[in-house]
């Protein structure tokens, strides 16, 4: 991983100045109408973007992120807090402390909100402090010190410091120069060290590795192999250096630059320039009060988060039969990642990243590129985050919302039996996508939450960006005695693409028609017929098993032992008596095969099963625990769940881990075409019948009329 | 299943008259330009459609389907063929007999083609005859009689006859009337009987069941439960009647009509009328000579097929580095379906459909609805098929081709480490989709082949249409003693959604850089480190295993025993020495759990494994065999493969089965929102590096300018 915090100190004041005086996004016409700060995309018929003046922003919903004003207030309160008089603690996290769920559920617009609170995590004297600040009472109301293992999220200062300490170390410095690298072309990264036993416990450490950026910004493809420093961040010193790669050349830099402006040879055929448009009458969604998204029959609260990137809250869908707006999901977000590289050598063994807790998906988020990351008519949302000195900064355009008309079919039927009437009915599918991308060093993770009018939510993760590669003296495979001795295939001259996995855990606090739910595993079991009973020998039966305790819902997916996975509301039944529910439908995925007691697997023990269900507990948010850096795995989903608590007929949380195995190939060099995988949350007896039966087919008149742009 | 052939006799002459005098699709401007009958979508800037005069069509490619002229010629030749003098055989199939693969591969435009041949399957005297007709020599050149089990595809006449025989049977007729159904509201279907033992062997049989269509065209939701006739088609008599459902009411018809025109209540909120447009500068693909599709770096031959629906042939991709057009897939198509219902009772046990071989996906294909099934600017292709009297007919607009701009990301990277230069690169994804839909009675199967510029092909199957449901006296679940006693959940009053599976087998004749390939199973295996070797205890290794014989490639997917599945060309290596290849990447899928010796599982034994590889054999096209109706499973992929033939370093065929388990729910009533699943064929070391690195980002000027239509 990489030193991935994204703004330098010197930039912050400049940024605030810009915020104050300038719009972030060019306007054609202002799109802000009405007293409720609502952006009407479809009526304004312009780009759906308005100037964002975060300095004056207020919150409108109990789950809204802390505003700039609130962040500044917290910093002031902390500066007056006596334990912090003698020093300036480093802020590793400063974020909204969400009100109790029951209070959020009870909130109504126009009524007083629950008190606004901030949760601050600071490091002081090697200890992690968790502080609650009450913004209404203007004081610290809680202060706990972490006694478990692990440290908070790494800051940019940590990473800079690790690199500086390494480069200030004479031996390390010398080793770099010996590789023939000039300091002006050197790029070094601070990488998370994981936890691998007592020698690194009790202090904060990072690994430092370097790359050569001569003639290319794609330094990832030019590793200085086998040179790793372990840096003690507390004492600011190098504690260990491995330099086992002296004889491994630095891979050449040609053909690694991916920027369009430097491509010297145009694609042989580039016919896609005049591409199908998405421009239209304007999108059909509105964003109220900065964070409430309303589209078709869906509404939900959407916000950026410095740790997990993006949070969808209070997702509700309107029942077209009753007009009722019904709860589906209280909260959904990517709670942790686990990215183990499959190479045990001294420069690779520790690469077992947990990117959300170690670096922060929001902190690493990208400014989305219009028309390329997100189609035209996308709505862009900023993140307001906090630097390690407690000062707010803006991560602009880090989330986009857009309506997708992908050409898929919503439902259809051609009636072939009846000739009169002739029936050929089809309806097209239009969906809403909410997207962000986190560039966690080399890798770019694209997160999509896609909402369909039939009630289905599809959660998709896309992977792009660069491989983490290993230098080698091999320029081709012919000299390799046994390719299996390498930790991955050769993807370019002197470049090995090391085998690795990606696991992304999703925290899915389903609230089907309310918080009181149960989890039902519907097993499909083969039954044999009795002798003489039927010409059939076998068939399947669905057997419903309500999970009583956590152990009943620790699930490893098996193709030959299939099940459905329902979250139901046992108190709400359809008119037929079926319980209202949603089911989790996995797509393609992968499972971790690492030894259960391998340190990285202990830390990421949430990957021991693909599915878990826990009783709602406000402290159980992140599957890898709150303090992930160098954690020993003592505060993970797997540990919480050992208590085997009751999960029937109460507020429960569903956890699903999406996985990828990645054996790299040449097409991944020097940058990877996106691969993706997804899972669905699908209504099951939630609606009385097909909820989109009465949708109108699309006619020619529904479509706008387009002419080519002048440049065509 | 259903009586699913789609045109009455009386229609055919009318149709031919229409063909002769009228365009099938309204024109704005003719789009046919040039001597090569090329449609230039992007230049014409109108709807990409031209009038199709199939009567005068000629073939242009050895794999082109038989033209109307050729079909008529075959019929003439057959009428003069002495064994058929004394009777008129029923044509169960009349289609192109494709030339030997080596001849097709050797064909070049402008040079003489291999001779045109037709393969005709007729039934005569209860025997299936396979006849080759040489259209150049004007005579029958081969005539074989099937000695194995099974019968050819069911014709519309068969289905009509089965229903007529049943309704002419006094006992059956009386049983229908006793249910309170008037004949004017009766809809009866001929269903495939499968094979269940000696009592039905030696003669062609079908099952007949009836439905009530009073006040709704959605008669599927109103079954006359438990009344089944078995009809002997050869002797035209009823051989068995089950009437065990007398006490089961016919489900009510309210809320079952799905036609838009009859919806009495508009959706509570219908905001999606003014929907995002796909109108543009026009699509970027051309269709040459009716069947050759060229888009971006892809080209392939595309045709309709009466049995399998749609065939993609000679799919080739241009290598942007070398300019070379390289072979990827010789042929790909859905070769068979298997849809077993999980209910052993007398009216359900036999519902174990093999829809391609029994009814024909092309024969059942739908006329795609513009703007709903396929976006604007789609190109539509007809099928030219043959009725049971040997006369040609047109299945209009049964395939569409469109460019999809779905808002996904092709690749991206934001560089967070370097501050100078600031790098934020992203490219959007544009793909080409080829689609058809087969309405096999109640179910609609949507087949998509999606081509990406990075070389990936995604094959997707969508399911919509109606459930096959079972009548019951239960109006809600409260009276049901044990829900597991029913063969599925209650989805409406008196309606059980019977549990069932869908399996779709794909024949993928991969020709990676030519026909000589090998199959490599790359297993990901856990390795343990040695004591003291590393702080890591475990990691994964990729182990390549080249399949030598068929048994090495009979694969059941296992999440905890993962592998990659490569088809490589051992004679073509990248500059690094990696063999050129493509890998099959499964998505979500399902596996059949039926007893291996259960008759339906024997017939569909291709579902015993998810993946198979066979040596190319021109007779091995359809995974369930050539004669599927009432087959005993003696000519399936599983049987061919028992020979355990060598598959290394030769022309091989990859077979993949995509599966769904379906436990119905209320949302599936009265018509199902589309569910879909897919798999990918992805280049692996096929290209020297990322093939889309040099694609330009999309800029504002690339997009057309749109205004709302006047009706907005």
TrEMBL record, chains A, B:
<keyword id="KW-1133">Transmembrane helix</keyword>
<dbReference type="Pfam" id="PF01179">
    <property type="entry name" value="Cu_amine_oxid"/>
</dbReference>
<feature type="domain" description="Copper amine oxidase catalytic">
    <location>
        <begin position="279"/>
        <end position="692"/>
    </location>
</feature>
<dbReference type="GO" id="GO:0009308">
    <property type="term" value="P:amine metabolic process"/>
</dbReference>
<keyword id="KW-0479">Metal-binding</keyword>
<dbReference type="GO" id="GO:0048038">
    <property type="term" value="F:quinone binding"/>
</dbReference>
<dbReference type="GO" id="GO:0008131">
    <property type="term" value="F:primary methylamine oxidase activity"/>
</dbReference>
<keyword id="KW-0186">Copper</keyword>
<dbReference type="InterPro" id="IPR036460">
    <property type="entry name" value="Cu_amine_oxidase_C_sf"/>
</dbReference>
<keyword id="KW-0560">Oxidoreductase</keyword>
<protein>
    <recommendedName>
        <fullName>Amine oxidase</fullName>
        <ecNumber>1.4.3.-</ecNumber>
    </recommendedName>
</protein>
<keyword id="KW-0801">TPQ</keyword>
<comment type="similarity">
    <text>Belongs to the copper/topaquinone oxidase family.</text>
</comment>
<dbReference type="Pfam" id="PF02727">
    <property type="entry name" value="Cu_amine_oxidN2"/>
</dbReference>
<dbReference type="InterPro" id="IPR015798">
    <property type="entry name" value="Cu_amine_oxidase_C"/>
</dbReference>
<dbReference type="InterPro" id="IPR016182">
    <property type="entry name" value="Cu_amine_oxidase_N-reg"/>
</dbReference>
<dbReference type="GO" id="GO:0005507">
    <property type="term" value="F:copper ion binding"/>
</dbReference>
<feature type="domain" description="Copper amine oxidase N3-terminal">
    <location>
        <begin position="152"/>
        <end position="251"/>
    </location>
</feature>
<feature type="modified residue" description="2',4',5'-topaquinone">
    <location>
        <position position="443"/>
    </location>
</feature>
<feature type="transmembrane region" description="Helical">
    <location>
        <begin position="7"/>
        <end position="25"/>
    </location>
</feature>
<feature type="active site" description="Proton acceptor">
    <location>
        <position position="355"/>
    </location>
</feature>
<keyword id="KW-0812">Transmembrane</keyword>
<dbReference type="InterPro" id="IPR015802">
    <property type="entry name" value="Cu_amine_oxidase_N3"/>
</dbReference>
<dbReference type="InterPro" id="IPR015800">
    <property type="entry name" value="Cu_amine_oxidase_N2"/>
</dbReference>
<dbReference type="InterPro" id="IPR049948">
    <property type="entry name" value="Cu_Am_ox_TPQ-bd"/>
</dbReference>
<dbReference type="InterPro" id="IPR049947">
    <property type="entry name" value="Cu_Am_Ox_Cu-bd"/>
</dbReference>
<keyword id="KW-0472">Membrane</keyword>
<dbReference type="Pfam" id="PF02728">
    <property type="entry name" value="Cu_amine_oxidN3"/>
</dbReference>
<feature type="active site" description="Schiff-base intermediate with substrate; via topaquinone">
    <location>
        <position position="443"/>
    </location>
</feature>
<dbReference type="InterPro" id="IPR000269">
    <property type="entry name" value="Cu_amine_oxidase"/>
</dbReference>
<feature type="domain" description="Copper amine oxidase N2-terminal">
    <location>
        <begin position="61"/>
        <end position="142"/>
    </location>
</feature>
């Amino acid at each position: 991983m990489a030193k991935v915090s994204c703004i330098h100190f010197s930039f912050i004041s400049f940024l605030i100045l810009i915020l104050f005086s300038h719009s972030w996004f060019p306007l054609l016409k202002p799109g802000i109408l009405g007293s409720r700060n609502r952006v009407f995309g479809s009526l304004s018929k312009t780009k759906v973007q308005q100037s964002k003046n975060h300095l004056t922003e207020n919150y409108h919903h109990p789950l809204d992120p802390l505003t700039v004003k609130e962040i500044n207030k917290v910093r002031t309160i902390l500066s007056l807090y006596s334990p912090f008089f003698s020093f300036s603690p480093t802020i590793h996290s400063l974020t909204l402390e969400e009100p109790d769920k029951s209070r959020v559920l009870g909130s109504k617009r126009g009524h007083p909100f629950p008190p606004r609170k901030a949760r601050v995590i600071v490091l002081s004297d090697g200890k992690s402090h968790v502080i609650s600040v009450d913004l209404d009472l203007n004081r610290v109301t809680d202060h706990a010190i972490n006694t478990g293992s692990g440290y908070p999220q790494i800051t940019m200062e940590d990473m800079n410091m690790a690199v500086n300490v390494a480069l200030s170390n004479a031996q390390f410095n010398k080793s770099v120069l010996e590789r023939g690298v000039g300091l002006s072309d050197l790029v070094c990264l601070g990488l998370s060290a994981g936890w691998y036993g007592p020698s690194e416990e009790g202090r904060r450490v990072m690994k430092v590795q370097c790359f050569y950026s001569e003639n290319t910004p794609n330094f990832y493809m030019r590793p200085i192999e086998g040179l790793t420093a372990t840096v003690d961040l507390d004492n600011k010193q190098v504690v260990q250096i491995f330099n086992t790669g002296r004889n491994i050349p630095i891979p050449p830099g040609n053909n690694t630059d991916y920027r369009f402006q430097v491509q010297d040879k145009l694609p042989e055929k580039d016919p896609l320039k005049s591409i199908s448009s998405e421009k239209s009458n304007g999108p059909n969604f509105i964003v109220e009060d900065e964070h409430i998204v309303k589209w078709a029959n869906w509404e939900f609260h959407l916000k950026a988060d410095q740790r997990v990137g993006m949070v969808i809250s209070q997702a509700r869908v309107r029942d077209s039969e009753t007009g009722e707006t019904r709860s589906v999901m209280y909260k959904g977000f990517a709670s942790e990642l686990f990215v183990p590289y499959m190479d045990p050598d001294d420069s690779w063994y520790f690469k077992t990243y947990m990117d959300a807790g170690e670096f922060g998906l929001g902190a690493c988020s990208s400014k989305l590129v219009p028309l390329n990351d997100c189609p035209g008519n996308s709505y862009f949302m900023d993140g307001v985050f906090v630097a390690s000195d407690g000062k707010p900064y803006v991560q602009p355009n880090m989330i986009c919302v857009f309506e997708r008309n992908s050409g898929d079919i919503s439902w259809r039927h051609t009636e072939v039996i009846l000739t009169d009437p002739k029936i050929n009915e089809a309806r097209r599918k239009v969906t809403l996508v909410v997207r962000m991308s986190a560039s966690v060093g080399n890798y770019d993770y694209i997160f999509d939450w896609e909402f369909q009018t039939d009630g289905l939510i599809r959660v998709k993760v896309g992977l792009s960006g660069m491989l983490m590669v290993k230098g080698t003296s091999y320029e081709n495979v012919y000299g390799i005695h046994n390719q299996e001795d390498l930790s991955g295939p050769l993807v370019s001259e002197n470049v090995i693409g090391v085998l690795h996995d990606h696991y992304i855990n999703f925290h899915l606090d389903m609230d089907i028609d309310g918080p009181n739910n149960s989890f039902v595993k519907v097993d499909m079991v083969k039954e044999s017929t009795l002798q003489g009973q039927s010409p059939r020998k076998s068939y399947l039966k669905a057997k419903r098993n309500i999970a009583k305790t956590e152990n009943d819902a620790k699930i490893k997916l098996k193709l030959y032992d299939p099940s459905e996975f329902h979250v139901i509301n046992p108190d709400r039944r359809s008119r037929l008596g079926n319980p209202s529910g949603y089911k989790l439908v996995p797509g393609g995925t992968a499972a971790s095969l690492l030894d259960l007691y391998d340190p990285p697997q202990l830390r990421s023990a949430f990957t021991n099963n693909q599915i878990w269900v826990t009783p709602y507990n406000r402290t159980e948010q992140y599957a890898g625990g709150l303090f992930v850096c160098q954690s020993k795995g003592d505060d993970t989903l797997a540990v919480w769940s050992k208590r085997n608590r009751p999960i029937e007929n109460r507020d429960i949380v569903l956890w699903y881990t999406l996985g990828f195995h990645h054996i790299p190939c040449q097409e991944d060099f020097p940058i990877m075409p996106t691969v993706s995988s997804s899972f669905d949350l699908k209504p099951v007896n939630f609606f009385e019948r097909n909820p989109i039966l009465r949708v109108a087919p699309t006619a020619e008149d529904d479509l706008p009329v387009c002419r080519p742009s002048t440049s065509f």
